[in-house]
Amino acid sequence: MKNYELVLMLKTSITEAERKAVISEIESKYKVLDKDEIGIKDLYYTVKGGIRQAYFVSLSMELSADDIADLKKSLLYNPTLIHYEIFAREANQEFFHFEKLQASFEKAIEDIKDRKFGQKVTFFSKAENAKYINWKSITILKYYLTRFGDIKPRQYTWNSIATQKTLRKEIIRARTLGLLPFINR
User: What does pLDDT average to over the chain?
Assistant: First the structure.
């Protein structure tokens, strides 16, 4: 059994009862360690025929390989679901709640905004901040993208190789969920 994070993108047009029914069905079948109902978020690109908003729910789960296959089958034909992703988590990786994470970044965002144009972004290069690298930290991850949507190189961010790889992985996760753009025009 390994730790995973299941991210559900639900339609915004469904009722709260339908949304809770989907989540409770998953909670009844599988071992859910923690739950984070993020809420409605705007997407950077359209999915499934023009949908630009989704209701995000993140579940920390402990699953086996058979459970993953069964979970994918159960989510395949769910009419309330827009998209889902299953991310493997490290054993020591912390599960963050979206609102608490955004609140803890308020001071860091002010520090980044106060910097002069062209200065290096060094938030995650500090060891105490490296634990916050997560796809949910959208406001900070945006500062690690160039104006064209590329990931800033390590020479510019001053991150270690391991931190830069983790940062890249989390930016790609946020992009696949539609929370960050693949390219800026």
Answer: 88
